[in-house]
Amino acid sequence: MWYHRLSHLHSRLQDLLKGGVIYPALPQPNFKSLLPLAVHWHHTASKSLTCAWQQHEDHFELKYANAVMRFDYVWLRDHCRSASCYNSKTHQRSLDTASVDLCIKPKTVRLDETTLFFTWPDGHVTKYDLNWLVKNSYEGQKQKVIQPRILWNAEIYQQAQVPSVDCQSFLETNEGLKKFLQNFLLYGIAFVENVPPTQEHTEKLAERISLIRETIYGRMWYFTSDFSRGDTAYTKLALDRHTDTTYFQEPCGIQVFHCLKHEGTGGRTLLVDGFYAAEQVLQKAPEEFELLSKVPLKHEYIEDVGECHNHMIGVGPVLNIYPWNKELYLIR
């Protein structure tokens, strides 16, 4: 059997070499049908920045300010800032999102200086400033500048010699407040000196920074080593490095501590830059960093002392990261 097949193949090859077998000519491929149509970009120059755009079947593509952005047509219609679609006084949408056709496409698109105009099938016109689109695009969010920080350990912070802010300057001048906020945003901690040792003055200082949140302890509270609450902070035991309010649904963003009175020895304050520690983990053990940022844990507080009966649970990973730019913003 194999002999007959080989013989047949041999005779076919001989016929091909002699030109004895004629095969029908194959049709020439239609390259126009195989290749996509040439992409047509609309180009214009605007205030020395080149702007180009293209309308696709399901989205609008924009090239501007060294960025290539893609906008869904539904998104463009839904985010219209016209008076009938958006209340500029309340900064809230008036348009019913559910009323937008999911297959909507603009009839025309034009550019005037730095403003794009979209005319929709019903005649409604939406206009967007190019810089607004850059700022609010997904691509723009990815390129958004991360809050500058100075990560520190004991040596770095001591060498920085970050100055404290005087209480009067902090409360009465914008420059004092600005100095405090700059220190806080850069280092995560900041100090105010010469604050009168009362809860009222501490509260006044805290309100200069932000609103004060209500908690299971109250808005403002004293604590000392009398075990009046079911928390180690109310004992004479040393507190090692830790994070507070991890059991809140949303942990505190800023905590204010003010030592009103100190008698005896001890009570030393230990401060650690958790963001510095997280960066060390990222550099030395990236797999562990990913684990800490993705696996949710249950953070729990149980209190049953005197008349205080609380059981709080907060769920979330130890390291909380913005998914679009991988910026660490919270540590539980």
Can you give a write-up of this model?
- The structure is a single chain.
- With 332 residues, the chain is an alpha+beta fold.
- Among the domains are: 42-142, NE0471 N-terminal domain-like (2-Layer Sandwich), CATH 3.30.2020.30; 212-331, Double-stranded beta-helix (4-Layer Sandwich), CATH 3.60.130.
- Helices cover 29% and strands 22% of the residues.
- It is built from eleven helices and 15 strands.
- The chain has helices at 2-18, 31-34, 73-78, 130-136, 138-142, 154-160, 167-172, 174-187, 199-209, 274-284, 286-294; strands at 42-46, 49-55, 59-64, 67-72, 86-87, 92-93, 108-112, 115-119, 125-129, 165-166, 192-193, 297-305, 308-316, 319-321, 328-331.
- A hairpin with a 3-residue loop joins strand 2 and strand 3 (59-64).
- Helix 10 (274-284) packs across helix 11.
Oligomer type: single chain
Cα(first) to Cα(last) distance is 76 Å
The CATH architecture of the domain at 212-331 is: 4-Layer Sandwich
Q: Sum up the overall morphology in one term.
A: elongated
Lateral arrangement of strands in the main beta sheet: 1-2-3-4
In CATH, the topology of the domain at 212-331 is named Double-stranded beta-helix
Number of strands: 15
Radius of gyration: 33 Å
Largest sheet: 4 strands, antiparallel
User: Which blocks of ≥5 consecutive residues have pLDDT under 50?
Assistant: 1-39
**Secondary-structure content class:** alpha+beta
Q: Output mean pLDDT.
A: 84
Helix content: 25-40%
